[in-house]
Structure formats: C-alpha cells, structure tokens
C-alpha cells in the first residue's frame, strides 16, 4: 500500500512538472515610464493542453503606490494564446526614479511565475526659495530680491509685475526702489540639467508711509477726577499736587491697607458682639 502511494505521488509530481512546463507566459512592457504616464503591461499565456488557471498580475516598486492584488481566471485551449493588459498607477512628481518589476503569478493548478524589470524615469525637482528683505515696504525704500538653492548652475528667469500690471524681466539678485504704491508679484522659474523645472511666486506691497499710532489718554485735564481717572493716570485732576507714579502707588497701597483694616475691625466687632449676647443669654 505504501509503495502504491509513493508511486502515485511520483506520478502526480511528474504530471505537475509537465503541466507547468506546458504553460508559457510572456510579458511585454516598455523600458521606462515618466511623469504623467500610466504604468501598464501586455501579457500572454499559452498552454499545450486545455486547462483552467488562476493567476495574479502585479507591479512592484519600492517607492510607489501599491495596488491591491486581484486574482483572475482564464480557460486556456491547447495551442491558443490568451492575451490581456494590466494597468497600475500613474507616475507623479512625488515618485522617485527607481527600478520596478512587472510580473504574472499562476497560482492554480500549478505555480508558475514570469517577471520583467522596467524603470521609473522621473527627475528630482529643483529646490528654490525666493528671499525678500521685507513683505511691506514704504515708498522710496529699497527692495532687495534674491533666491537660495542647494544646486549650482541654475538657469533662473524672473518676472516682476507692478501694481499697474506692467511686467518687467529682472535679473536676480536685484535691488529696486519702491516707486509705486500697491501690490507687486514676483514670478521666478528655475531649471537645471537632470532636474524638473519649478516656478515660485511671491507677493509684496508698497505703502505711502507707516501708520502713526497715537496713544489715547483717559485724563481730560478738566480739574475734575472723573470715572476712569485716578492718581496714577490723571494726578492733575485727582490731586492738587502732581504726584509721581511712585507716590501714587504709595497712596493707593496705604488706602488699600486702611480698607483692609476697617474690614477686619468690623468683623472683630461683630464677633465680640455675638459673644457678649450669647454669654448674657447663658447667665439667665
């Protein structure tokens, strides 16, 4: 019995090997994909015998969205090529350059796999920061404009739009005189070989002059100590003698102490009166 089982297992193994060798998988994918392109590949599966299969197409990239794996089925006829297309993610600027793998796994009735490599060809973006010495300038003030980047040899083009919508090409760094009142817009485009170009915009304003902030006093100087006036903020109305802030503080602290002493004395008097009344009542 054991010998019979061993022979059957060997026959099944040989049959599975022959069946796997009878399956032919082919993947057709372009060598690289760039920004804006959708990753896809065409594939075909053929067999020497009639067979029903379950298979899974996939794309593997280290730095890219991973789609959910989906099993598919197909009924293969001997000598007839089964064809289909698999689509995956769209290449965005956030995906770094890398080597990926496109593949087909046949899961049933036997396992078989075919893979093919391809490239994600995206360029890193130029890093660029616009630098201004201020955001709001007064008329006649100097406007200093420059930029910073970790890259060298940048091709930088800058355009300044004035408040009257007049446009001017400027070379950075630049020093300009704030002659027109209003809002300015600066647009800077930078490019470098092997990098994706970027455009940065910045707005700044020019005003006539800085606003003058005037302090408002509660003291009207009419000789009457009105509501809101006191020795500190209006000594000329609240005391015949003009007091310094230190003297006003001293007077206020003394008045506060007298109030506290009066309250304490009142409480002691009430307690003493209650004690006297209770004692007199107990003597009766």
State the separation between the terminal residues, measured CA to CA: 122 Å
Number of discrete domains:
3
Low-confidence stretches: 6-18
Q: What is the number of beta strands? A: 16
Helix percentage: 10-25%
Give an overview in words:
This protein is of the alpha+beta class and 284 residues long. The protein has three domains: 2-120, Immunoglobulins (Immunoglobulin-like, Sandwich), CATH 2.60.40.10; 129-207, Immunoglobulin-like; 235-281. Helices cover 23% and strands 39% of the residues. It is built from three helices and 16 strands. It has helices spanning 2-22, 235-238, 245-283, and strands at residues 23-28, 32-33, 38-47, 51-60, 72-76, 82-90, 98-108, 112-120, 129-132, 136-138, 142-148, 155-161, 167-170, 174-177, 182-191, 198-207. The N and C termini lie far apart (122 Å). Residues 6-18 have low confidence and may be disordered.
Short description:
23% of the residues lie in helices and 39% in strands.
Give the topology:
Layout: H1 2-22, E1 23-28, E2 32-33, E3 38-47, E4 51-60, E5 72-76, E6 82-90, E7 98-108, E8 112-120, E9 129-132, E10 136-138, E11 142-148, E12 155-161, E13 167-170, E14 174-177, E15 182-191, E16 198-207, H2 235-238, H3 245-283
Parallel strand pairs: 2-8, 10-16
Antiparallel strand pairs: 1-3, 3-6, 4-5, 4-7, 7-8, 9-11, 11-14, 12-13, 12-15, 15-16
